[in-house]
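User: Second chain of the day. Same drill as before.
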Amino acid sequence: MANLRQIPLTCSGHTRPVVHLDFSDITEASYFLISACKDGKPMLRQGDTGDWIGTFEGHKGAVWGVALNPEATRAASGAADFTGKVWNAVSGEELHSFQHNHIVKSVNFSKDSTFLVTGSNEKLIRIFDLNKPESSPEVLSGHTAGIRHVLFFRNNTHLVSCADDKTLRVWDRTNKQEVQKVTFPFNPNSLEVSKDGSVLTVAYSNKVAFFDSTTLNKIKEYTIPSAVNSASLHPAKSIFVAGGDDLKVYKYDYETGTEIESFKGHFGPVHCIKFSPDGELYASGSEDGTLRLWQTTVGKTYGLWKCVEGSSLNDNLPPKEVQAS
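Assistant: Same format as last time:
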């Protein structure tokens, strides 16, 4: 089965650039995908097919960050209307709206879904107890510029964040103190904790760097032929993908840094990229307003990709366009 063409599934429906995305874990109903868009309307989709499930209505500004809890029962979004919102991901109902004093760029659930962390342009990290939503959040301060990403880390005992002060920081939740810091020559654009929790993946400038999640020692760093906005490590830590300003999505061997392939599918810079929880596909979101789903192993029958032995993938089929109704 040589020379198979990669045919991404295109998920349309957004009207502005797609800037962030997140997957749930694998649930009884496969897994799910949420997208953040400057149109202010985060969308939920079936993760393996891209089929639209629903749109969360309520923000009054661009949505910059989204999250799903592991079971895909809750969604969260952070937006330019200075709020972080929590939603019932089954009914679409807004459950909580947490007021901030500036744009909320990042949201993330604890593994047990009882806490929500937000990072904002106030340079502050806030932790909200979802069982006591009316109580004041815990606040962690130390960053000197707007926070891009913040994630629960080390089995929820810590947080890891990156910001426009060119740093990545680890915080101890018990004493609310910064305990580790990495400084970069440029602002880090994306931050991911590997599926097994052992590796941090950071994209900055035209580099993708990998750090040991315990020591924060740099394991590897590779240069990409473009400014990189986002990178994601495969759950098996065998390959990684990256996307950026040249409109391409790249796939590399994690051990050697060898480029395996690159694909041009988007019509604008790639803002976000992430592997699905089973590693069978990766999703990318772009300035062009679309999400695209790409097969990790081109030619495998999976989701909506049907493979016919001896022919190029879907040779006789037009690429499926998944529309939001």
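Residues 97 and 203 are 30 Å apart (CA to CA).

User: Great, on to the next one.
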